[in-house]
Specification:
globular; 88 residues; mainly alpha
Length: 88
C-alpha cells in the first residue's frame, strides 16, 4: 500500500511526464537565469539570447512566485521591444 503522499507524487509525475527530480526549479538557478537575461536585454546584440533564456525559463516547472516574476520581466521586455515579442 502507498501512503497518500507517495500516491500524489506518482500522480503528479505521470501528469508531467517527469520520472524524477525536484518539483520546482531551484530558486538560485532561476534567479541566475533571470539575471542573465536582464543583463543581455540591455544590448541589442545579445537581446535574442535574453529572449531565448526567458523563453526557456517558461518551460521550467516554476513556483507561482517565480512565474509571476518571470512574466513581469517578459511583459517589460515586450513593452520595450515590441518588434521582438516573447510569447507568453
Amino acid at each position: 500500500t502507498f501512503s497518500s503522499s507517495e500516491e500524489e507524487v506518482i500522480e503528479s509525475n505521470e501528469n508531467m511526464n517527469v520520472t524524477e527530480g525536484p518539483k520546482t526549479m531551484d530558486p538560485a538557478k532561476f534567479d541566475e537565469g533571470l539575471n542573465f537575461a536582464k543583463q543581455k536585454l540591455s544590448s541589442p546584440v545579445t537581446r535574442s539570447k535574453a529572449a531565448q533564456k526567458l523563453t526557456d525559463l517558461q518551460t521550467e516547472n516554476l513556483t507561482e512566485e517565480q512565474l509571476d516574476h518571470l512574466l513581469g520581466v517578459i511583459k517589460q521586455y515586450n513593452t520595450k521591444w515590441p518588434m521582438t515579442q516573447i510569447t507568453l
